[in-house]
């Protein structure tokens, strides 16, 4: 997949910007606050139907305006083009998403159709933050591979919300101990079992992709490892029903605690994806450069994982790729990225590219200034 053209109208600080991308490296160069990341965010709207960081749609509308529009031409590896358009109006709030002028049945059905891999400073928390950040990473990767997984995830969240509401009522004394919790518990375990199974398999497969990616970025003997730690332990071959059974048992064991605390304590929403380097916890002990290198490895791994399962090269969106990296690692990473698919890279410094990339129709440079895009001289 490549994005060949994009148009942003009244999107963030862009009044009307048009870019024709090359099929290789596309570098968006500019000082801080000029509107580089905003362009990646616009691509994320076309691919994921929303911002890649937790920004609300209304904040993306240019201040003083009522509507934003983003339109892009996506070309599949087989050559089939699709015109994708997102428009959002603030009042009344309405988002319109079309592919070749047709609205998809639901926005969730679009996820994975135009695969992207996004690296941004916000994602730094994948390696350093709370377990929720790593669950989000797993979920987004798996959602782009399997719409069944995404449907399960959406369903699980709905069940969890309902069940937590009931438990909160129980705690507040608004519902007796006989509140109809059981059907929700059954559903939670059933869907939860499927999610845990899929994630266990993912972690086992994905870990070797990360190991390979890491060793292609750094010479040395650091070996990363990913380990999925579901709160309901399940062997690698466990079937969803088995996991659901184990989940139910744990929920029943912790029933009193759940009622006292007013929330669901067992399930994939409490799981952890543990990251280690040579057996040592990344979260606790890794240096900034190691964090960043591991994060880039996760993204390189995600690229190949998605490519193999979707038979389509994801578009790489690399925000501030080089921050926190020394010159040698930056060069190495650039060399690896150069062999992948189409990449759109934001940077404040051109230095890492100098002498490494020849600018032509495949590899292009743009300068961004006050929300205006110029082909770089
Ligand atoms: N809704 C909006 N309307 C108008 N301007 C906005 C809106 N949202 C953000 N901006 C402006 O967009 C600019 C930030 O753009 P962006 O995040 O793309 O910068 P950047 O070039 O990536 O900078 P950095 O190098 O610091 O990451 C800021 O000047 C901000 O004020
Ligand atoms: Mg930025």
Ligands bound here? adenosine-5'-triphosphate, magnesium ion
CATH architecture of one domain: Up-down Bundle
Cα separation of the termini: 28 Å
Strand order of the largest sheet: 7-11-12-3-13-14
Whole-angstrom Rg: 22 Å
Low-confidence stretches: none
Structural description of this entry:
- With 377 residues, the chain is an alpha/beta fold.
- The protein has a domain of 183 residues: Glutathione S-transferase Yfyf (Class Pi), Chain A, domain 2, CATH 1.20.1050.90.
- The chain is 42% helix and 22% strand.
- Strands 7-11-12-3-13-14 form a 6-stranded mixed beta sheet, with helices on both faces. The protein has a 5-stranded antiparallel beta sheet with strand order 2-1-4-5-6. A 3-stranded antiparallel beta sheet has the order 8-9-10.
- It is globular, with a radius of gyration of 22 Å.
- The relative contact order is 0.17.
- The site of adenosine-5'-triphosphate has 17 residues, from helix 1.
Strand and helix layout:
Elements lengths: L1 E10 L2 E7 L4 E5 L6 H13 L8 H4 L6 E9 L5 E9 L4 E6 L16 E4 L5 H4 L2 H15 L1 H25 L10 H36 L6 E6 L10 H14 L1 H7 L10 E6 L2 E2 H4 L2 H23 L4 E4 L8 H12 L4 E5 L16 E6 L2 E4 L2
Parallel strand pairs: 3-12, 3-13, 7-11, 11-12
Antiparallel strand pairs: 1-2, 1-4, 4-5, 5-6, 8-9, 9-10, 13-14
Helix pairs in contact: 4-5, 5-6, 5-8, 6-7, 6-10
List keywords for this structure.
377 residues; alpha/beta; Glutathione S-transferase Yfyf (Class Pi), Chain A, domain 2; five-stranded antiparallel sheet; 11 helices; 42% helix; binds adenosine-5'-triphosphate; binds magnesium ion
